[in-house]
UniProtKB/TrEMBL annotation:
This is Copper amine oxidase-like N-terminal domain-containing protein. Residues 573-673 form the Copper amine oxidase-like N-terminal domain. It comes from the Bacteria. Pfam families: Cu_amine_oxidN1. InterPro entries: Cu_amine_oxidase-like_N, Mao_N_sf.
Amino acid sequence: MMKKIFVFLTTFVMLFSVFTFIKGAVNSIGNLTVSVNPSDRGAYGEYKITFVSHSDLKQGYDRIYLQFPQESTIPCTSCAYAHCSDCFLINGTRVAGAGPVYDLPKTVYFTVPSPGIKANETVEILIKESASFQNPTVPGDYTLKVWTDQEPEKAQAPFTITSTTIQNLAASADPEFTNANIMLSLDFTTGRLGDVMNGKNVYVRFQDGFILPQKPDTNYVTINGENPGSVSLKGNTLVLQLASSIGKNANVKVKFYPSFGIVSPNKQGSYLIEVFTDSEPTPVSVKIDFKDKDFLRTLLETTPSEPNGKNGYFVSNVIVKLIAETNTSETPTTYYKLDEGDYKVFIDPIVINDGIHTLKYYSKTKSLTEEEKSVTLKVDTKPPDITLNIKDLTYTYENTLSIKGELSESGDVYINGIKLNMLSPLSFEGIYALKDGQNFFHLVAIDVAGNRNEKLLTVVLDTTTPVLTVDSPKSNFEKFSNSVLVKGNVYPSNCFVLVNGKMIEVDANGNFDYKLIPSSNNNMLPVNLKAIYPLTDKSVEQKFIVFFEKDNTIKLQVGSKTISVFGETKTLDVEPFIDRTSGRTLVPVRFISEALGFEVSYNAKTKTVLLQKNNFKIELIVGSKFAIVNSVRKNLDVAPVIKDARTFVPLRFISEVMGYKVEWNAETKTITISP
């Protein structure tokens, strides 16, 4: 009996252990594999995942979970499912549902479709490329984790993201001798996936034997003509950080100048250099041979290190340094000459200014003399000058605009980004339609060296036409005497108004009032008015012919202070009067004489009045009945008198002595004096 009980208990324990083992064994899926096509970095991949499920998975209920690496880019899975439900298949059938697992990063689920999955059945999950699951951007080995609702322990499988390699790597060293400070040039082409963003790196790894600078200087290395953002040395690898991005399938030239400090191996032989980038991390190698030989050479270094303009031009002054090198113990001396000058010993750096210059140089020691070398340096630091037919701010009333100009040197001209066809190497023209209001033109001139000059032009289309209203003259053949009154209004009030070509004053309201005094005695006078709108020079004109009669008389009246002088009314400070004793009319001598063009002076001590006009001279003495006319004595019927502090002379004096015609109207007591 006890034996039976023992056998029963032993069997029970064994069965329990087997059950427990089997239960533990099926906590995770089996035979997990992952493949990606294409496996290119950053590409949208088609993912195929296979595994064996040890448990039944019910349709529409159980889920399968996939956790991608952190570097993958996973779209909104439910969104992708909504617009592309055929993008996710389980055993060839569209999944019953899909979505993200929010509490786990980079994790998605798929709901098992009909008819479900049986235990120990192989499961194939296909995520199509059109689902936009993006591969990591950095090539390397990654892991995908998979589990199910029935087997919650995560299984994982590796997959590889690949990249291309650089192509056509070539290297040259100058000189190709041992133990020399070399100029090293590396040329290659990036691959199909070789685009490298600025801030990423190019790596150059050297075989043992090279001497590398411990403190690399970015000024003496260029990548496609540009200094890198930084250079560091890690072991025997130089790390060059890009200052500008490099595209895929692009040609790349890396140049290390002698002053960078790379020294060739001291033993003759072949040496490897490897190059790779962050985007194409698989190293590609190239071989350089170095020989043992005594050598002497002169290295030429410029600052900037390479032409920084177009067509081989430097657009800044160039500093040239000549470096003599030899692997002998002798001390070299370097000689140079610039253009047609004489050879000089090189001591200090040479500054090369604007122009195209030829620099010749060589070095020599006691036993070695280098062959003369020559280099052409093209320097242009000045942008082209632009001369235009319009101002930076121009107003016009024309609907089309011609922009003409000339450059100070040959080059290209762009207006609003469009290149113009040059009329000649220096001249250009562009015709443009204008819209009302402001029109903007961005003009850029670029010379052969790449120097730029820019102008921003503003052209305002203003169709304003001046409105000229003339109140006087009112019509043709209107009569005027002494002066022609030109009166009217112009709109806008900022217009210029010209009368017979002379600009006249216009007030803030556009009114003008001008007396035109003719310079000739012609009876018929043209009066031409022109209004000009100053912003566009648009103008209108009105023309008249008027009659003009010049009044050359002086009219005054006894007992009145009003006098008319050549048609213009004026006021006397004293009035003419009739002397009661003699019955003669007396007039104020200063006012009348000055109106007739005489200069008048008075000597109060001698009471002498002096009248002078050109060579005609008259002397009068108050109280004396004679006058001295050009040294000839002439009698007066009435002596000059002083009244109201003014000197009066007899009216007859005007006619007889001064030579003017005098008319007397006894009825109105009016005096008219005329030539």
